[in-house]
Design brief:
Distance between the termini: 11 Å
Number of domains: 2
Number of helices: 9
CATH architecture of the largest domain: 3-Layer(aba) Sandwich
CATH superfamily of the largest domain: HAD superfamily/HAD-like
Keywords: Hydrolase
Radius of gyration: 19 Å
Protein name: Putative hydrolase of the HAD superfamily
InterPro entries: HAD-like_sf, HAD_sf, PGP-like_dom2, S-2-haloacid_dehalogenase
Pfam families: Hydrolase (PF00702)
Largest sheet: 6 strands, parallel
Shape: elongated
Organism: Microvirga lupini
Length: 236
């Protein structure tokens, strides 16, 4: 089976992202410590985020709004305007965090772009994701950029048909089982999980270890070898 198009996730696949969300959550916990314990606050912000995804979508802006909503809720409206201002400030910092490509990414993209048409497929706020790609210095490796509200099987079918010969001749790689692996496999593509040590609970799911088109790889640097094996042997 020949693969001509390779889709790549952005956050925590090409550059650090969840690291900054974790530090922001820690500061949020400290701001609300007088009202609620850390465990309950983390449960509340997680529930608020999930509830708001359909309204705000993914990204730092929606997360900031969810932090403010949670702060008002758990404090029963007693949170100070100063604390709300600090929440806005840490949300703004999250929007402006430095974009640091993960080790070996530049070299891997050089090798992959010589063999495949690379398409960046990421969720989140359009302006923020475009800004991060520009700041990363990796944009020249991609022939297409797709910033989507959600990653589903029909998302991959549409994107891989637009940029190539369809999902059966494409592969997707990223750090999220729920977004980068399962829907790509459902669409008929190959999919590789590139794990990152921090995972948002919303993106976790059981590994499809028995699926013939799935592989878990230790790093992006292993993708060229795996794809070459796919081209040679096809699905197991």
């Amino acid at each position: 089976m020949s693969i001509s198009v390779l889709g790549l996730d952005a956050d925590d696949t090409l550059w650090h992202n969840e690291t900054f969300y974790q530090s922001t959550r820690q500061r949020f916990n400290e701001l609300l410590a007088d009202f609620v314990d850390t465990k309950r606050l983390e449960e509340e912000i997680e529930a608020t985020e999930r509830r708001n995804l359909g309204l705000y979508g993914y990204g730092a802006k929606g997360f900031t709004l969810s932090m403010m909503e949670t702060a008002i809720q758990v404090s029963e409206g007693k949170v100070s305007s100063q604390a709300l201002g600090e929440i806005l400030a840490i949300g703004r910092e999250l929007m402006n965090h430095p974009v640091e490509p993960l080790p070996g990414v530049h070299e891997a993209l050089e090798a992959l772009s010589a063999e495949y048409r690379l398409v960046l497929i990421t969720k989140g706020d359009l302006f923020h994701q475009e800004s991060k790609l520009a700041a990363s210095g990796l944009g020249s490796f991609f022939s297409g950029v797709e910033i989507v509200s959600e990653k589903k099987a029909d998302t991959y079918t549409r994107i891989f048909s637009r940029h190539g010969a369809g999902p059966e001749h494409a592969a997707m790689a990223g750090n999220s089982i729920r977004s980068d692996v399962l829907p790509a496999l459902e669409a008929g593509s190959y999919a590789a999980l590139i794990p990152f040590h921090l995972v948002w609970a919303h993106e976790d799911a059981p590994l499809p270890t028995d699926h013939p088109r799935f592989a878990e790889l230790p790093s992006l640097a292993e993708l060229p070898r795996w794809l070459a094996g796919v081209a040679k042997n096809g699905a197991r």
